[in-house]
Amino acid sequence: MDDFQILDAVERYIRGEMSPDERLHFENLRKTSPDVDQMVVEHTLFLQQMNRFAEWKKFRSTLHDTHINLSEQGKIDSAKLKGKAKVVYLWKRYKRVAAIAAIIAGVTTLSISALVNYLTPKADNAKVQELSRDIPNLKQQQSSQVDEMNNLKNEVNNIKNKINQQSIPFKAGGTGFLIDGKGYLVTNAHIVHTSRHIAVTNNKGDQFRAVLVKEFLDKDIAILKIDDDKFKPLSSIPYGISKVESDVAEPIFTLGYPRNDIVYSEGYLSAKTGFNGDTLSCQLGIAANRGNSGGPVFNHEGEVIGILSTKETEAEGVAFAIQSKYIYTAVSELKKDDTAYQNLRLPVKSSVRGMDTKQQVKKIEDYVFFVKGD
Fold it and tell me: Which fold has domain 132-374?
């Protein structure tokens, strides 16, 4: 595609002249092509500068016309106003208008600065690593970026049909589990934060559309709702969610999606607090990988005691989980904020109590989902 055609697509995108499907396709292209994304940013700044210049020209023209009208009405004597005197006169008479124009220009400049800062990646030097994972098969290499640009050139008139054949390019992946049979799940907020589209997949490979009900960034908890006609509500959930702290050395196990099929891991509770004594979480002695974020942590009675969230980067086999009692806190806050969720009921009792771990996993795995966000 030549520069003119790319520029035309960029301008249509900035001016809001694309259909929703075209816009979605172009935004996906921006994500996979740094060159196109940079062109959008630069052209946006250029158009804003041109608009400011046009406004300034319009302002000067208005001053000129006003001066002529006042002169014709005899309210000013143009003959006596020459050179700098005329400029001073007009400035004193219309300095308020000029000040407003200057303020508008200043606000525009600050907006541009905010846009540039927003697009600049932020460094993260934390010693605790979130356990959400990238979805590797959706990373685009340079050759695929060129292919996308060529597709935009060759198919610009039938983009809508092309969009319908493409899946949403999910970037972040983690785990979630049901807390209500009507389709409510809990996961980590850092997996779906800023996501416009969310999907969940069960251990049979069935994918469902989901929506974010509420996120609690201070607790790193998000509540999702499966919003898909294909999903059939479940009558009961086999595990309970514990309201109390577990004991140190208690055996635990997790189910999660560090890859595309469900993975079992086992370990023990090593401390009742998390990293640097954090009381929101507890410390686990367990192997955890990217993709385990949001996964349930079970005790030997089949009760959820936490939500796996992070691991320590400087030590092997040390992970942290948000304590399960904060699930109750989050749901309570949700109900207080929105009465539409008054019927959301958390499972309290475990129906897998007394079973061996193998049987427990078979009963539980259908309620644990792979969570994806774009």
Answer: Thrombin, subunit H (2.40.10)
Domain spans of the chain, in order of start: 33-119, 132-374
**Full-model pTM:** 0.59
Give me the residues paired with residue 172 across strands: 134, 373
d(CA 275, CA 30): 37
Q: 116, exposed or middle or buried, with CB in 10 Å at 0-12, 13-18, 19+?
A: exposed
Q: Residue 294 in contact with residue 309, Cβ under 8 Å?
A: yes
Supply the DSSP string of 132-180, one letter for each residue.
-EE-GGG---HHHHHHHHHHHHHSGGGHHHHHHTS-----EEEEEEEEE
Question: Residue 266 is encoded by which pair of tokens?
Answer: 């086992």
Q: Give the pair of three-digit tokens for residue 1.
A: 């595609």
119-146 pLDDT, tens digit per residue, is: 444 444 457 888 787 776 544 555 555 5
Collect all residues with Cβ–Cβ distance below 8 Å to 21 and sequence separation of at least 6.
159, 160, 163, 164
For the chain, the maximum distance between any two Cα atoms, rounded to a whole number of angstroms, is 103
Whole-angstrom distance, CA of residue 242 vs CA of residue 240: 6
Angle between helix 3-14 and 20-32 (nearest 10): 120
* Bridge pairing between strands 128-130 and 303-312: antiparallel
Token digits for 356?
């061996």
- Structure-block tokens of residue 162: 């092309």
What are 72-99's pLDDT values in tens digits? 676 665 555 555 455 555 555 555 555 5
Scored b (16 or more CB within 10 A) or e, 66-84 reads: ebeebeeeeebeeeebeee
| DSSP H/E element including 46 | helix 34-72
219 contact partners, CB below 8 Å, separation of at least 6: 189, 280, 322, 326, 329, 330
